[in-house]
Amino acid sequence: MSVGTESxxxxxxxxxxxxAELALHxxxxxxxxxxxxGAGPSGDGHVLVDGANAALPTNPASPxxxxxxxxxxxxxxxxxxxxxxxxxxxxxxxxTEGIPxxxxxxxxxxxxxxxxxxxxxxxxxxxxxxxxxxxxESLRSGxxxxxxxxxxxxxxxxxxxxxxxxxxxxxxxxTTTGPDRGARNLVRSVRAVLEAVPGLPIQVQxxxxxxxxxxxxxxxxxxxxxxxxVESLDEEVRRRxxxxxxxxxxxxxxxxWEEAVRIFGPNRVSTYLLxxxxxxxxxxxxxxxxxxxxxxxxxxVPFRPMAGTLAARDGTPAPSAELLTYVTEGVAAKLRAAGMxxxxxxxxxxxxxxxxxxxxxxx
Length: 363
What we know:
By secondary structure, this protein is of the alpha/beta class. The protein has one domain (14-361): Aldolase class I (TIM Barrel, Alpha-Beta Barrel), CATH 3.20.20.70. It contains 11 helices and 12 strands. It has a 7-stranded mixed β-sheet with strand order 6-7-8-9-10-11-12. A 5-stranded antiparallel β-sheet has the order 2-1-5-4-3, covered by helices on one side. Helix 4 links the parallel strand 8 (168-172) and strand 9. Helix 3 crosses helix 4 (183-196), helix 4 (183-196) runs parallel beside helix 5 (213-221) and helix 8 packs parallel to helix 10. The longest helix has 18 residues, at 321-338. It is globular. 54% of the residues are buried. Residues 1-10 have low confidence and may be disordered.
């Protein structure tokens, strides 16, 4: 069956469809832990849905409400339990320079510490910028510092683990001018954090480094998993949505994924695939299957027009819940057939799962 970008599955799992609706349209809830902007496609409140991490828009206009710990749609109980993640204790601390810890790293979900090591990107000029990204808006709003030092990251990680029971950490970076594209800073940061918190699972995220030896260096520094995020496998979509990033040939991504799987192992490597950029749904699912065959986990996430993005400025809408459900179920089925689970990555976006619906679908 040929499926267009807004086609739907003939047998929709209502529970997954509801979870998709929540991911896109959010819930009327004042979440204490929020991520309003930054690198990546999602800016949301952090909650637990049926005990699993979820990043949902905090939307007063959403038809979904929370009553007595359950999600309701009008007078109907959806059967989903929801609790807000509590504000972590480490947010109350500052460095000796007076920098709030939450400007260095933030809690994602209930137990994930996340940071953008370098909060600037060489591709942030409007002509080059990824249309879904707000990495430098965090600086303009005063919510982050431009470059986090390894010592600062180690200090915050130690406090987050000790005070709030953080179980894993995610380190991403804006693309830098050097041929390593940011990997060098990640190596130093991983080493420093693991000196302070031995054994903490850490995922690193960066573009394919020009020299693939950096992938070995990241592993040897102690990283548990790596994300090399392409966002779309469709070349026309890449050029339209990521004009700067699309200048990195797909062949470089393929070589980086192959090397990363060789070094980190199967299902320790992931890549974002965004739903709603105009890519054909069946082609997206098929491409995800090819990634799975490579040992790469395709982290399927809905595009959402975050405030401050070029997409939001231009009025680009989010995908339909039906489309998100169709793609999610298709990719999750392939993951189950391959025996791949995001939780098995131990650290990173796939292990956290908050920005995706895949875990609800068994992926």
